[in-house]
Amino acid sequence: MMYSPILALSFRESMKNLGMAMSNLGRALADVLVQNLGYSCGNFPKNCDEKTCFLRLNRYPPCPFSRPETGAACGLVSHTDSDYLTILYQDHVGGLQVMKDSRWVAVRPNRNALIVNIGDLFQAWSNDAYKSVEHRVITNAKRERYSIAYFVCPSYDSTIGAYAQPSRYRSFTFGEYRKQVQDDVKRTGKKFGLSRFQV
Q1: Using an 8 Å Cβ cutoff, are 118 and 151 in contact?
Q2: 179 Cβ partners below 8 Å, 6+ apart?
Q3: Is the sign of the CA dihedral 29, 34, 36, 42 positive or negative?
Q4: Residues 96, 82: Cα–Cα separation, whole Å
Q5: Residue 114 falls inside a structural domain
Q6: 118 sits in which H/E element
Q7: How many domains in the chain?
Q8: Domain-located, residue 199
Q9: Which residues contact 152 (CB under 8 A, 6 or more apart)?
């Protein structure tokens, strides 16, 4: 296939427009969730903009060893997201599963809906009023899967504090949190997340 600067520009513009729309949606959703706690904050989440939030396009190739019922051949291992909110669109193939009542539940694809995950930072900020959702992706044995995810993240030097006191978590920056998560995964192979920051 030959490279086309026109197609490349069109794709870039489409992704830029999608990112802007997701950013606006993320702010609107955060505002609703904050108001639901009885808290008024017109500029929440703070320090989240086009330089700190990001869009990720994911492709999961088919895997003949996939076993959705057992979790074998994960395309993405079990984890929580380290942001405030994740806005996700998954294609018709499916594969996303969330942990509910100590069991994995498949999230059925809906072409007319987006999936919104609470992230670790929102859990800390809300003092556990909202919980970061544990999820994973199971590959399909015969079909590839695509998804688009937008992550609402603050700058690395932003302090994550609870909206009400006393806080269940000590004060920390997003950069400190990310570093701790990366260190834990390198050392142990798993993420401990917010448990490292409890008071």
Answers
A1: no
A2: none
A3: negative
A4: 18
A5: yes
A6: strand 115-118
A7: 1
A8: no
A9: 23, 26, 30, 45, 48, 53, 83, 84, 85, 86, 87, 119
Whole domain around residue 118: which residue ranges? 5-194
pLDDT tens profile 153-184: 999 999 998 888 899 999 999 999 999 999 99
Is there a domain that residue 188 lies in?
Answer: yes
Q: Which residue has the tokens 């409890």?
A: 198
CATH number of the structural domain spanning residue 160: 2.60.120.330
- Order of strands across the sheet that contains 145-152: 54-60, 145-152, 85-90, 115-118
CA atoms of 134 and 180, how far apart (whole Å) = 18
What's the pLDDT tens digit per position in 32-90? 999 999 887 666 788 888 889 999 999 999 888 876 666 566 788 899 999 999 999 99
Pair of tokens at residue 92: 């018709």
Position 43 in a domain: yes
Give residue for tokens 């997003």: 174
Question: Of the candidates 142, 145, 138, 151, which has an alpha carbon nearest to the alpha carbon of residue 69?
Answer: 138
Asked whether the beta carbons of 128 and 197 are under 8 A apart, the reply is no
Instruction: Return the structure tokens found at 5.
Output: 């600067």
Angstrom CA distances, 136 to 51, 90, 168, stand at: 27, 13, 26
CA distance to 36, 40, 85, per residue, from 53 (Å): 23, 22, 10
Task: Give the list of residues 6+ apart from residue 147 with CB closer than 8 angstroms, or none.
Answer: 57, 58, 60, 88, 89, 90, 91, 96, 137
